[in-house]
Design a protein that fits this description.
The chain is 35% helix and 18% strand. It is of the alpha/beta class and 226 residues long. The protein binds NADP nicotinamide-adenine-dinucleotide phosphate (NAP). NADP nicotinamide-adenine-dinucleotide phosphate (NAP) binds next to α1.
Length: 226
Amino acid sequence: MKTIVVIGGSKGIGKAIVDNLKETTKIINISRTPSEEHKNIVSYTCDVTVDKLPELESEVHSLVYCPGSINLKSFTRLTLDDFQNDFNVNVIGAIKTLKAYENQLVKSKGSVVLFSSVASMLGMPFHASIAASKSAVEGLTKSLAAEYATKVRFNAIAPTVTNTPLASRLLRNEKQQESMKQRHPLKKYLESKEVADLACYLLSEKASAITGQVIPIDAGIVTVKI
Ligand SMILES: NC(=O)c1ccc[n+]([C@@H]2O[C@H](COP(=O)([O-])OP(=O)(O)OC[C@H]3O[C@@H](n4cnc5c(N)ncnc54)[C@H](OP(=O)(O)O)[C@@H]3O)[C@@H](O)[C@H]2O)c1
């Protein structure tokens, strides 16, 4: 059985990835609150922005990093701390994780998925901080894909609004949900499973020819105008 490290498998898209894989894959979940109990899941409680990552004895065949933020404010209201905090959770946490498990990923010729956002592809008001952090995630993805070519594949997914705890404030009532659907050419926002299915594909050997890509899953909002 292969082993995947899921950073943030307790909620949202990470939990949907765990649900997809838990019957066929050994899962090492790392999050601030534990994930569900299951015979194939080992869970570590850790805040990746402050704590040392657990040392793992086992092989690591793939890794997905799910922590992120949605901190939407005007540039006037965004403080330097906002930028720093967003950068810490989206970028530094991912770097820290990759450094912790680099040797295992190289040994198993592994695969990594990081998360960007449509905010790095589409200029939107109030998105300066998250766009800056997610653009850094995209640069990191492409640079590491080059540096580790033939050893580890690195890809990123750039979702639009997805129905998770992180986005709950954007979808908190029926009016907001409907208005969010109407903003997208496909007249929908995403459910976690749709994003998890793409992540699981990229992590799998079916995607063995794909590296260094940032793949939008965006209900058409980035490239389609109707
Ligand atoms: N949802 C959206 O609309 C949306 C849109 C674009 C991009 N994205 C990106 O997609 C990724 C997944 O988003 P999501 O909506 O699934 O987020 P989520 O609902 O907040 O889930 C994030 C997961 O990461 C864990 N986590 C958060 N901070 C952590 C920390 N400091 N240390 C350890 N674990 C931490 C959380 O668990 P604990 O709370 O237990 O720690 C949770 O399991 C993020 O990178 C996000 O930026 C999401």
